[in-house]
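Entry 0007
Protein: Etoposide-induced protein 2.4 homolog
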Amino acid sequence: MGDTFKNTIENVAWGFKDCVFGMVTCYRLDTEFNQAAESQRPAPEPMTTLAKRRAERLKHTEVFSIQVFYYAVLPCILYYVLFQFSIQFSIQVFYYVVLPCIFWMIDSISGLSGASETKGSWLAVILSFTFDALWILPLFVLSKILNCFWFQDIADAVYVKRHGKPQLPNISTFVADMSFSLFLQALFLIQAMLIKLLPIYGVGQIISLIHMCLLYSLYAFEYKWFNKGVEVHTRLSLIERNWAYFTGFGLPLAVLTTYVSSSMIVSGYIFSILFPLVIISANEAVEPTVPFDFPLKLFAPVVSISNSVFNRSFSKRVRNTSGQHSS
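Output (structure tokens):
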């Protein structure tokens, strides 16, 4: 029992260290990329015919992906930080500049009275709802779409630099894998929220936090594992068999998004800004190869539900296809 507790603490600390240290890896990689690019730079003029041919061939080799990495990762992080800052700035301007100016104009026209204050409160609700519907919500959806492209670009660039060419599946396998994974992750998030409602004080919060740590670790490592050709069920098995390590790896992001702010929007922004760095951490990390003392089957309920839903959907599609062919 004592050895198991010690191993748990050590693995959690291992995962935590890999996540935090990996976040600052981009600064070290920056130097590596500059040195690599400098070593690959063609010789100065005048160039011989052989040197020109060598430089031309270099443009078409995978080694050239180092510069692609350098120009893909850091700009994506910077662009997203600026994007999130612009959204927050627009929100602050609306609530602390636009709305007070509107109320000041109303008070100036109608005078201060109970009726005007009542109308002003209703007007504030209507304007806030309109602002959220026409500005915040579209930007929030846009940020999620940009996440997919920017995060995937970062993950692919890091993977190419560290592991070589990705083992990408065909389109149908890709769509099926991603659909199943997204559905399962949504169910697991609901499971984490329900666990938090346990009446025993502290127990529900701790188990829910472990859920979020494992979910964030799955988010981060999924890019690397997918590029390696690891299937979704195997990815989940890796998380469950080494749950202590992955709990520690996802702990920094889970704590920051859960306890820094009670606002889901602010938590989402924190996640979006830090997650690119966590992707780099996952690609730099060397996760355990030996299974932990015992697995933690937290994904088992949602895997069972997801399998049932997708198997039923697939069977229905096969029946419909066979019926169309027979007719």
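Curator remark: The radius of gyration is 25 Å. The first helix runs from residue 2 to 23.
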